[in-house]
Amino acid sequence: MTAFALDLDKALDQPLLKIGAFSLTPEKLVAAATVIAVSIAFIWFIRQLTKRSLARSGEGRAATIYVAGQVARYLVVIGALAGVISALGVDLSALSLFAGALGVGIGLGLQDVVKNFVYGLILLFDGSIEVGDFVELEDGAAGLVVAIGPRATTLRTNDYVEMLVPNALLLGGKLTNWTRDRVSRRIHVPFTVAYGSDKEKVRTAALEAARAVLFTQPDDGDRRTQVWLTSFGESALNFELVVWPSLDAVKRPGSMMAAYCWALDDALRRHGIEIPYPQQDIRLRSWFGHEGADGVAAAAGRAIDAPVEIIAPPRSTNDAAADVQRSD
Fold it and tell me: Range with the lowest mean pLDDT among 28-37, 197-206, 279-288?
């Protein structure tokens, strides 16, 4: 062995830091850095392999591939931590003194981090929420699940705005998964028509509108396009177009509803069916101290006719009135 090699070995073994029986040398730092570099390379390789697999696989296998990639990265991170500790020569038994302090730290300041990490693992293996699902939160925020991380889940809205939602919020709050099991959902599109409109003509126009939208699925068993008269409004009949759109359309609720509303307006106009405006009747109770025709005459400066004797109407003969009379 040359003198240079001996000097290099001696320099690498020279302690940089010494605490009790533990000494930190350049050789240990180089070994720890090597473990970290190899781990980063493995994580990068797993991420690239996962992306390529997701691009080639169908939607049914995407969630499984994503979970496998996440678990593999977690295992590499855990192995890297163990390798770095071993390379530095840290005696794990000496860390027992810090276990109590670490537990207090987790209880006081890191409980949310640990809770979100555990909930993230539950989300990965539970299957109730998967990458590619379109979910809606309790506050109305909605988006496509693009990643389930150790702290938060990333939702991408239809405006391509990415929201980071803590994992604990997804499991602890109310959530609607519109595309679970990759099955389409029934959608209700409300609309109104004027009183007096022909209901059968309204139904025909609404069904034509549904067929005009390309992503409306054909009737299949109990999954049929329907038109419901739901209620009587103040100035209109309230209908709902009940349809089964495709799964891709369900993931874009704003665009989907806009398409059906556009088609409904075209169909109703084509059939001459009126979409009413809100209407209100105003009753003038008193005018210049008089009501009704007397009030109009007083406003016009005309003489007011003598009061007309009011003849009491005959008593009500309906069943309800009869019941009340018998109770007297």
Answer: 279-288
Q: Are the CB atoms for 241 and 260 separated by under 8 Å?
A: yes
d(CA 66, CA 124): 9
Write down the residue that tokens 């350049």 correspond to.
26
Give 3-51 pLDDT, tens digit per residue. 544 444 555 555 555 655 556 666 667 777 787 788 888 778 777 777 7
Q: How far is CA 85 from the centre of its chain?
A: 42
Angle (deg, nearest 10), helices 59-88 and 26-56: 180
The answer to whether residues 133 and 144 touch, using CB atoms and an 8 Å cutoff, is yes
Q: Are 193 and 267 in contact (CB under 8 A)?
A: no
Q: What pTM value is reported for the model?
A: 0.59
Question: Of 89, 68, 67, 79, which Cα lies nearest the Cα of 40?
Answer: 79
Strand partners, 190: 240
Do the Cβ atoms of 135 and 129 come closer than 8 Å? yes
